[in-house]
Amino acid sequence: MNNDGIVSLLIAVQLVLLFVAVAAVVWSAVVQVRRASSPHARGRRRSAWLSVVGVIVLLTVTFFTAPTEALLVNGQDCTSPLQLRLSSMFVTSSLVLLFVAVVAIAVSTFYHKKR
User: Fold this and answer.
1) CA distances from 88 to 11, 39, 66 (A)
2) Pick from 54, 18, 51: nearest CA to 33
3) What is the pTM of this model?
4) What are the pLDDT tens digits along the chain (115 aa)?
5) Do the beta carbons of residue 46 and residue 72 sit within 8 Å?
6) Is the Cα torsion angle 85, 61, 107, 47 positive or negative in sign?
7) CA-to-CA distance for 96 and 91, rounded, in angstroms?
């Protein structure tokens, strides 16, 4: 399993998934803003743009704060700073987004029970 082609393929798949996810967030925000013709349109626009900007900021911060020290993977040194940063960015961003989703569900559940 010490094949650089597999690592490159996995990174390519992750990049495609990342771009699809970002495109889905942007599309969702655009649709939400276009449908915002009610009196609460201002809150919907703010929510949509907060989602888009939040994802972009999260990806940027996790990319630039990722460590670039060489790792030993399957007996081989992985020294590519880009691959190290991308893999760390994907893992960290995924964990942060999962945490945010769990908190949002919990807050939403408690908020609707009070109403």
Assistant:
1) 11, 42, 6
2) 51
3) 0.64
4) 456 677 788 888 888 888 888 888 778 777 776 776 666 666 667 777 788 788 889 999 999 999 888 888 777 788 888 888 988 898 899 899 899 989 988 888 887 776 6
5) no
6) negative
7) 9
